[in-house]
Amino acid sequence: MDQLMNAIFMLILALNLFALGNASIISVIRIVALQGVLMGFLPLFIHSHLSFATILASLAAISLKGIVIPAIMIKALRDVQIKREVEPIIGLLPSTIIGALVTAAVFLICGRGQVPGQSESLIIPTAITVVLVGFILLTTRLKSLTQVLGYLVLENGIYMFSLLLMEAIPLVVEMGMLLDLFVSIFIVSIITNQINRTFSSLDTRHLSSLKE
Questions:
Q1: What is the pLDDT of residues 77-111, one digit of tens each?
Q2: pLDDT of amino acid 212
Q3: Given pLDDT bands bounded at 50, 70 and 90, which one contains residue 113?
Q4: For 136-150, what is the mean pLDDT?
Q5: Is the CB of residue 128 less than 8 Å from the CB of residue 15?
Q6: How far apart are CA 158 and CA 171, in angstroms?
Q7: Could you tell me which of 106, 100, 141, 101 has the C-alpha nearest to residue 122?
Q8: Rounded to whole angstroms, how far apart are CA atoms 31 and 33?
Q9: Where are the domains of the chain?
Q10: Which among 17, 40, 197, 206 has the fewest CB atoms less than 10 Å away?
Q11: 54-62: which pairs have CB atoms within 8 A and are 24 or more residues apart?
């Protein structure tokens, strides 16, 4: 079981690098969606005893992170008719290299994160790495849609941390986190569409031209 879970962690880390090195926004959406699906399976492996709450949380995460939110993002992408992140603050190759170095540094510092009863788990360093990669995407991309995707990756890392406390956190709290994420993305998609209508662009540099 540990080997399967660690294989999922390795896939999640690989998807981080693919997201950093990809200019196609639709491809990044699909990468983040796949990462979300993998995240959704984690509750089933982290805790030895499956409960109704665990299964429900897993299904909710898979549905929301892997289907609903990506569908909203794809619709927003089609509405604004933008396909690529053309001028990131940091280039795609340097971003990928930074992501790889961050991953190596986190694992070097943290070693192998341990979950009670699962000594081979990599969840802690993986979660930290996902948060940091999400932050890199959020801060080095200029298109607002890509920045939202960075926020989604960052939230995936936070979600991984929350799984460590799933047995102590009531189901309503877990569902509340997912609902907050869904509402946030829904609102951001509306704002993004409005920005595009106003400025005919999703480049966030245009917002600096606004005057009070």
A1: 887 777 787 778 888 999 999 999 999 999 988 87
A2: 46
A3: very low
A4: 86
A5: no
A6: 16
A7: 106
A8: 5
A9: 1-109+121-202
A10: 197
A11: 54/166, 56/171, 56/175, 57/166, 57/171, 57/174, 57/175, 60/174, 60/175, 60/178, 61/36, 61/159, 61/178, 62/36, 62/37
Tokens of 24: 């196609």
Per-residue model confidence as pLDDT tens digits over 188-211: 665 665 555 555 554 555 545 544
Beta-carbon neighbour count of residue 5 at 10 Å? 20
- Tokens at residue 192, please? 């993004």
Sorting pLDDT into bands at 50, 70 and 90, what band is 119? very low
Rounded Cα distance, 122 and 114, in Å: 7
